[in-house]
Design goal:
The complex is a heterodimer.
Chain A: E1 8-17, E2 27-35, E3 39-43, H1 50-57, E4 65-70, E5 73-74, H2 80-84, E6 87-91, H3 102-106, H4 108-112, H5 117-130, H6 135-138, H7 148-160, E7 166-170, H8 178-195, E8 198-203, H9 206-212, E9 215-220, E10 224-229, H10 231-236, H11 241-247, H12 251-256, E11 271-273, H13 277-287, E12 292-296, E13 302-307, H14 308-313, E14 323-324, E15 328-329, H15 335-345, E16 349-353, E17 359-364, H16 365-385, E18 390-391
Parallel strand pairs in A: 3-8, 3-9, 6-7, 7-8, 11-12, 15-16
Antiparallel strand pairs in A: 1-2, 1-4, 4-5, 9-10, 10-18, 12-13, 13-14, 16-17
Helix pairs in contact in A: 5-7
Chain B: E1 5-6, H1 37-60, H2 65-70, H3 73-106, H4 114-126, H5 129-140, H6 144-168, H7 172-180, H8 185-215, H9 227-236, H10 240-268
Helix pairs in contact in B: 1-10, 3-6, 3-8, 3-9, 4-6, 5-6, 6-8, 7-8, 8-10, 9-10
Classes of the chains: A alpha/beta, B mainly alpha.
């Protein structure tokens, strides 16, 4: 399902970190390739060394042995401060500088790189726009005057300031509430579609990993790679019991979170214009095998679900017949979202509408079952033909 | 999502303004705690009244010849200035020594020596000031500088401890993100840690200066002058009026320095905290 790996932006070779006084290494001989322009998620249980691994990439933690390459260049022993200016760094706690304005926070790296004042100012405004915060309002505010979600956006803007090719993100959305997190994740994915940065993203949440990752490295103790693969293949074909257990129950449901409504054919459902009256609607219903029909207004926006008896009982007007349409999704919604809307509206189908609310089609259980079947088959096919990108030797 | 459209999963741009936007609420002004002018004026007015009362007493009360000599306004003024000089010089010296030592003690390489350094400061402050002063007078003779050395030792701990605490209370994640962005450790210290520690360090300086105003009264014992001259001669010659006037002046000086220190703290506290 995913494109083959491009050239490596970051290569970790036999990377090891051991602390004095500890018998076992925190990170043991890790090999990992991070392809250019992709989000690679390091995911694993607490204490598996994923954060240590990420922090060795910008050498906040110095590796004990092994090699780190950035765009092919060995940076294991190059000056750390210069190296870090080429990598954006976002941590869960954000760490905005409380005594500096938003502008000064975002401008830190450009100023370290000795950009001119004009260029820095223009870049700050551009970035604030990019993360959806009006520069004229927020430029001269202080971090304490922002909400958690806004601080997180500034954290991302600050990391992007000097347009680094690489971003390191350690549970960047971990400290905000679930609703804000969802929003930030979506915004970030939208940004990434434009920016195409190479991103190493650490999380302990497999659902976040599946949502954010182009590739996922599932790590076990001592940062040993249990499986390094696309989300689809990790869900369909976990390398071993550890990965399967880490994914947890509901792999099929999680796969539905990867598929978009627009990628599957809509169910065929009878529709009629509400203004044409009950007779035309009954005729349309008779022509189909379904037991209910969708009424549309003049702009083809879905209004009501009606069944045969609703139509027969209705007088001249259909305005109150049947029940109002409650579950609607856009084509970009995931199948998981469509299923959720379907279940929570207690109807057998969910209506797909375009951005203006116009009717496009419907998704029902049949569509979802078929999609789940296709995805499983496709993932197994690709696993058989290509094999997973990389898989740790079974055992340890 | 009972009614209306389920927002597409990254389909459409999201409203950039959070509902919990604190900007929509009234926020305290940055650098908060700015008090209205009449509160700021309260203490200076009280201090000025005390001084005027002293002055009126000195000018109008029937004084005998000893009192007249002890309470001569010119003499009182020069004793006060001398006292200020002792406090000022010792405070500048102790800041110049204790702040850098406190910074050193919080650097990763030196973290192990912190208990040792703080212990030394504790000992210096634990020794009775009189003892320290006499010891230095014996070692280095009488006069201005031995007193300064004693005052410096005595005021060392508050400044050292506050510098260490001030730097340690800086959010480690703020420091980590600064390092992660490629700031050198020196730049992190200068631009992040010290500004954020300024309020705590200044509080230490203020405490030390106030302590020094009190301790400097014993400078008279090694002939270094100051308001202690007035007080101790009042004691020796049994002139209560001199004791009271000298003490009031020292008290006013201490409160005034504390007050000015407070203003300085407010002025130097970084915005946004």
């Amino acid at each position: 399902m995913s494109a083959p790996a491009g050239p490596s932006m970051i290569s970790l070779e036999q990377l090891t970190k051991s602390y004095p006084g500890q018998v076992e290494a925190a990170v043991q001989s890790l090999d990992l390739e991070v392809p250019e322009g992709e989000i690679v998620v390091l995911v694993g249980p607490s204490g598996c060394g994923k954060t240590t691994t990420m922090k060795m990439i910008n050498r906040i933690i110095e590796p004990t042995s092994g090699v780190i390459r950035l765009q092919g260049e060995d940076v294991t022993h190059s000056p750390a401060d210069q190296l870090r200016r080429r990598m954006g760094y976002v941590i869960q706690q954000i760490g905005l500088f409380p005594h500096l304005t938003i502008e000064d926070n975002v401008a830190v790296v450009p100023r370290l790189l000795k950009w001119s004042g004009d260029r820095t100012r223009a870049r700050v405004d551009e970035l604030l726009d990019l993360v959806g915060m009006d520069p004229s309002v927020y430029r001269s505010r202080y971090p304490k005057e922002l909400s958690g979600g806004q601080r997180q956006r500034i954290g991302v803007a600050r990391a992007l300031a000097a347009d680094p090719p690489v971003m390191l993100m350690d549970e960047p959305f971990g400290a905000v509430d679930p609703i804000a997190r969802e929003k930030l994740q979506n915004e970030f994915l939208r940004l990434q579609e434009e920016l195409r940065k190479t991103i190493v993203f650490v999380t302990h949440d497999i659902d976040e990993a599946i949502k954010m990752g182009d590739r996922i490295a599932v790590l076990r103790e001592h940062s040993v790679v249990a499986q390094y693969d696309t989300p689809e293949r990790i869900l369909s074909d976990p390398a071993d019991a550890f990965v399967a257990e880490f994914i947890g129950a509901g792999a099929s449901l999680k796969r539905l979170g990867l598929a978009r409504v627009r990628d599957y054919p809509y169910a065929d459902w009878p529709v009629a214009a509400i203004s044409d009256g009950p007779q035309a609607a009954l005729a349309a219903l008779d022509r189909s095998d379904e037991t209910s029909l969708l009424l549309l207004d003049d702009q083809r926006r879905p209004l009501r679900w009606v069944q045969r008896q609703d139509l027969q009982a209705a007088g001249a007007s259909l305005d109150r017949a049947g029940m109002a349409v409650r579950a609607m999704v856009e084509p970009t919604a995931t199948l998981a979202g469509a299923l959720d809307a379907m279940v929570s509206s207690r109807t057998g189908g969910v209506v797909v509408v375009d951005g203006r609310g116009g009717f496009l089609g419907t998704v029902d259980m049949g569509v979802i079952m078929k999609a789940a079947e296709d995805m499983r088959a496709a993932a197994q096919d690709s696993a058989r033909s290509g094999g997973p990108l990389m898989r740790a030797a079974s055992g340890t | 999502m009972t009614a209306g459209t389920l927002t597409a999963d990254s389909g459409r741009p999201v409203d950039p303004v959070d509902p919990d936007d604190p900007l929509s609420r009234q926020t305290a002004k940055a650098g908060g705690g700015a008090r209205p002018w009449f509160q700021l004026l309260g203490l200076p007015v009280v201090l000025a009244l005390s001084l005027v009362a002293c002055l009126v007493y000195v000018q109008t009360a029937p004084l005998d010849s000893i009192e007249a000599r002890l309470l001569d306004p010119g003499g009182l003024l020069s004793a006060t200035l001398r006292h200020l000089q002792l406090v000022g010089v010792s405070t500048v010296v102790v800041v110049a020594l204790a702040v850098p030592l406190g910074i050193l003690a919080t650097r990763p390489a030196a973290r192990r020596i912190v208990p040792f350094v703080v212990g030394l400061g504790n000992v210096a402050q634990g020794v009775p000031s009189l003892g320290v002063l006499v010891l230095f007078a014996v070692l280095y003779g009488i006069g201005f500088w031995p007193v300064i050395v004693a005052l410096v030792l005595y005021a060392f701990l508050p400044i050292l401890r506050n510098t260490i605490v001030g730097l340690q209370q800086v959010d480690p994640f703020v420091v980590e993100s600064a390092r992660g962005m490629g700031m050198s450790s020196g730049a992190v210290l200068r631009r992040i840690e010290l500004p954020l520690a300024v309020p705590v360090i200044l509080a230490g300086v203020r405490t030390a200066a106030v302590i020094n105003v009190g301790t400097a009264t014993i400078a008279t014992l090694t002939n270094a002058g100051g308001l202690g001259d007035v007080i101790y001669q009042g004691i020796t010659l049994n002139r209560t009026s001199a004791i009271v006037v000298g003490s009031v002046l020292a008290g006013v000086l201490a409160l005034l320095i504390d007050y000015l220190g407070g203003l300085l703290e407010q002025a130097l506290r970084p915005q946004g905290l």
